[in-house]
């Protein structure tokens, strides 16, 4: 299912549960601003290459718009719109003073050299610099981007506006990045998983996950807590060891080989079959829409923790719910990244650096509080965790919108 259709469907279900006025519902759904830019760069061989870049600013009722920048071949209009909308509800669920945005460039970063990626990032920043800003819209990394991308964005933005570290988060530490941001989404996934399992009287045991920034940090931290990771995948392939994968050794292998493929100590798997492997907890941590009506019936996990954004189609949601599978939704489960981005922004504005322990403790406090808030909405509306999170987020944004004078 198209990502925007799926996200709109979840929003509308939440709006009905909340009894939102239909005009307010429509206004909350329509993005504040959609930016589409052409980015042409000279390649290293002297030829020109053109790419399309997007920034969708969905809503700013609760504060500056916030969300990552994705470099991936599948980046397109509807997907970026859906991701921007999810950011609006996510920042509200986390109860941090932001709205939502998302951006990206349709490109395969694996096919571009470092200098080509730098030129592309600088051209993109030149095209959007007057529409982002510390109190307007604050980008961060997402798939295919990282601290280096944010360093280039910061540098290019600062040429127009003066040195402004708080204009992006997820920066290198030397440029004002926060300790703990790199691990934050994965650490938040761990805290979210613990909160859910605790409620069900269980402890961390077997899992499987994608293996980028979020997936590899989640795997590392869950492994440290005694969890058994039985299968992981990335773009190079999927691997499995039902006795548990040696995660520290796998992390070294990935560093040296740029992927999980060829890891000794696990068998290789078809990329599709990883989702339906026998395990207690499934943690999708890559692309959207991978759990759908084609595979939902085959999933054996009892819990799904959505580290990725919108990994589960609404049709799959229905099938899984009938099977009794419990899904911890993206707008709560992966909110650790944007929460520590908020801490980074606060540190930059104050010109003060927190130690990592403070970052991690604050993150745990926010994640625990958000879990309780989501659960409360589940009780009020007699709904599942996804609708609990959506009603929580949408209600907070709706209230802020009305208080700011939407009626006028
Ligand atoms: N970074 C963050 O702070 C946050 C990220 N998220 C979400 O988490 C998810 C992962 O993001 P992040 O870890 O940052 O991104 P990364 O780019 O670090 O990792 C992405 C992972 O997905 C894999 N991948 C990419 N394309 C495919 C494909 N076609 N098939 C299978 N695997 C693929 C990559 O493989 P390979 O490494 O081999 O390319 C990699 O393992 C995304 O949904 C993102 O929106 C959510 C909240 C915050
Ligand atoms: O850290 C941020 O600002 C945004 C992270 C993000 O893109 C996400 O949560 O999906």
Automatic annotation (TrEMBL):
It catalyses: L-glutamate + NAD(+) + H2O = 2-oxoglutarate + NH4(+) + NADH + H(+); L-glutamate + NADP(+) + H2O = 2-oxoglutarate + NH4(+) + NADPH + H(+). Substrate binds at residues 66, 90, 341. The active site is at residue 102. Transmembrane segments: none annotated. GO terms for cellular component: mitochondrion. Keywords: NAD, Nucleotide-binding, Oxidoreductase. NAD(+) binds at residues 185, 213. InterPro entries: Aminoacid_DH-like_N_sf, Glu/Leu/Phe/Val/Trp_DH, Glu/Leu/Phe/Val/Trp_DH_C, Glu/Leu/Phe/Val/Trp_DH_dimer, Glu/Leu/Phe/Val_DH_AS, Glu_DH, NAD(P)-bd_dom_sf, NAD_bind_Glu_DH. SUPFAM superfamilies: Aminoacid dehydrogenase-like, N-terminal domain, NAD(P)-binding Rossmann-fold domains. CDD domains: NAD_bind_1_Glu_DH. The record marks 142 as: Important for catalysis. Belongs to the Glu/Leu/Phe/Val dehydrogenases family. This is Glutamate dehydrogenase. It comes from Gossypium darwinii (Darwin's cotton).
């Amino acid at each position: 299912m198209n990502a925007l259709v799926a996200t709109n469907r979840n929003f509308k279900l939440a709006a009905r549960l909340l009894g939102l006025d239909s005009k307010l519902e429509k206004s909350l759904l329509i993005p504040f601003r959609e930016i589409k830019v052409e980015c042409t760069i000279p390649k290293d061989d002297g030829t020109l290459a053109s790419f399309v870049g997007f920034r969708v600013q969905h809503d700013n009722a609760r504060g500056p718009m916030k969300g990552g920048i994705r470099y991936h071949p599948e980046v397109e209009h509807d997907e970026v719109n859906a991701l921007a909308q999810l950011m609006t509800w996510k920042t509200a669920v986390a109860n941090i003073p932001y709205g939502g945005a998302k951006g990206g460039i349709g490109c395969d970063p694996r096919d571009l050299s470092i200098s080509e990626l730098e030129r592309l990032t600088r051209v993109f920043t030149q095209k959007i610099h007057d529409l982002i800003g510390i109190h307007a819209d604050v980008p961060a990394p997402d798939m295919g981007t990282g601290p280096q991308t944010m360093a280039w964005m910061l540098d290019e933005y600062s040429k127009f506006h003066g040195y402004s570290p708080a204009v992006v988060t997820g920066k290198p530490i030397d440029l004002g990045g926060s300790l703990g941001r790199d691990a934050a989404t994965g650490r938040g996934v761990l805290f979210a998983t613990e909160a859910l399992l605790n409620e069900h009287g269980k402890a961390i045991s077997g899992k499987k996950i994608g293996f980028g920034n979020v997936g590899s940090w989640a795997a590392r931290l869950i492994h440290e807590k005694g969890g058994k990771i039985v299968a992981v995948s990335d773009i190079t392939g999927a691997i499995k060891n039902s006795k548990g994968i040696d995660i520290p050794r796998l992390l070294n292998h990935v560093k040296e080989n740029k992927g999980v493929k060829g890891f000794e100590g696990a068998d290789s798997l078809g990329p599709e079959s990883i989702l339906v492997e026998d395990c207690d907890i499934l943690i999708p941590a890559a692309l959207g829409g991978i759990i759908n009506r084609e595979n939902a019936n085959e999933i054996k996990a009892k819990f799904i923790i959505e580290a990725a954004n919108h990994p589960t189609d609404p049709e799959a949601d229905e099938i899984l719910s009938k099977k009794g599978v419990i899904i911890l939704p993206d707008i709560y489960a992966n909110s650790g990244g944007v929460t520590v981005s908020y801490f980074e922004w606060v540190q930059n504005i104050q010109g003060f650096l927190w130690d990592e322990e403070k970052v991690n403790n604050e993150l745990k406090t926010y994640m625990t509080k958000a879990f309780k808030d989501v659960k409360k909405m589940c009780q009020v509306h007699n709904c599942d965790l996804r609708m609990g999170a959506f009603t929580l987020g949408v209600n907070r944004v709706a209230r802020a919108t009305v208080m700011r004078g939407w009626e006028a």
